[in-house]
Batch of 3 targets.
Target 1
Amino acid sequence: MATVQSTVVEKPNVSDHPDALGARRWVIVGLLSIGAIIAFCSRTNISAALAYKPFVEHFQLSNIDRGLLNSAFFWSYMLLQIPTGWLVDRYGVKIPYAISFVVWCLASAATGLTRSVGELATVRVITGAGEAIVTPASRHRYRRVPLY
């Protein structure tokens, strides 16, 4: 009597396919790039506003106030680059980046609610704190994702 051998054919995992992995990597690079572009626009938008005469008149800004507002963002941005890099190394990119993205988006939205130079400076400092993660997170992810 002949015996029939059955073989189980496993269905290949789509995420293990080289093309799927390559596509996923490019999606990640694309998302990080979009985040960097949004951060750049957010980082530089105050410069355009400070050159706009109605904005300057509305807040009654002196040249010192304009300099303060231009630099307020970079105080927290600069001070938090290394700590956010540590957070990304410790906890990965997803959660810290998502939290920071929410912080900087809310702070950017709150900019429209400000009524004084102090409030505007505070919102810019918070925005800088939120955006401080962009460069460390992007570099962390690019370093670990081969693009070939």
Target 2
Amino acid sequence: MVLVVGEAGIGKTRLANEFAAWARAQGAEVLSGQAFEMGGRLPYQPLVEALRKRLEAESTPEDLLDDLWLAELSRLLPELRVRYPDLPAPTEDELAAKIRLFEAVARLLDALSTRAPLVSLLDDLQWMNGASLDLVRYLGHSWKEHDSRVLLLGTVRSDQLEPRSQLATELSTLGRDLPVSQVPLQALSQAETLQLVQAIAGAPSAQERETPLGDFLFVQTGGSRCTCWRRSSCCASESGWYHGGARMAPAGWSRPWT
């Protein structure tokens, strides 16, 4: 498991999405779901999002799971019963229902990982509730047991990972089955902000490093990668880069989207 950690707006989601896009281009299977703040009241919400998108794109889910496990999965994805009206009823035993649901998800992800390496991206882990984290722990144990080709990639706010926080405790428990690595993101320095601006603009030579645009953006954004990227892109125009009507970079620089 890899956790991209940093303050809000630092660029965690963008970095994770760029990696996911790269992994997909290399032939990996990528599932992604995002937790949101009110989602703490919705069990399994980011995992449901990830699985729903994947199964909607799958022409024959029955090739991945037997009917028994598709039936259990229909607890999370009731549309499966519209697609397969003859599925057996899921177990009514409350004690067995949770473990069978977890096992259905584990079997589905394991089946996908036999086709290609699997990357499961869960964004904003700090908003996941206890039930969702229970499922993630179960998956981690299953992946370890089956030596599955799965990378769990998560993003999380650094202020939610204080040593005694509930999330830190939950992730520590998960670490018993999966090695957990952290990728901390810090704010850019003034020099790094200028390098980012030059990379976006496609600066033709090192002689253009004197532009005040990087200094201006560093002051305005505090080195936040995400905010700096957005504002840099918005500064572009056909004849140069501008702020308040004053050119901030040479007209020879290209627009970042051309």
Target 3
Amino acid sequence: MTQNRTDHPRGAVALHDQANWNPLWRIERYAEDAAYAEFQARLAQQAERLQSDKGWMARVEQHRSALVLEKQRYAKLARFFDHLKDPGQFEAEAQWYQSAQGLVAVAKALLPDEARQEAARKLAYDVSEFANNGLANAGINELWSLVCGTGGVLFDNSNGYLGAGSSNTAFAAGQTDLQGGSKTRVGMEGGYPTYGTDQKATWQSSFDGNTGNHDWEEFGTFNHASAGDMLNRKTESEGTKTSGQTWVLTLDITLS
């Protein structure tokens, strides 16, 4: 069952109405980790069937190459900056993206939306979608640093996180984190974020059976596991995740 919600968060400006910033959040709920594993297997089958499409495979290879270069760059930087992971971890991730398993992960991330949604309808017990958000001041400043300068921390595969929290406190631009007493950030799925076509970027994180088991009332995008900057925040009552369930949180942002 897919639910669509488009109400505006109280106290926030609907930025997409004024600046053509169109965020769409999506939650796929799987009753158990095994159901999510079956879902991933079906995506892999879908990706295998598309391998004969040379244009699509060229995009997959281009995105995979970008991820390998990203990991190699961070492996060098991590020797000088303490806030980054161990260089060996980045090197291992670069090798993983160069492997057949890494190729499959990237291919799954770049599947057409309808292919993923078809598989989700068969295996997820519920899917919901909701729109809008508020851009946080710190996130706006970080975006301009990335666009106009050489500073800033990217919201990329190495640094990007989606978060869910338990507070329905109205959005305020000065907020720097989710507001709930219970809140969880999870890093990117393999191959995410995706970008470079359709004027859209897509972030996706999977909260497994042991992660994020609390009320889901607020959502945000971050460039650090616990600190860093919050790009945006959205309040929406999405129920309570319980132990054993896998919930997949996706954010699409389209500029037009």
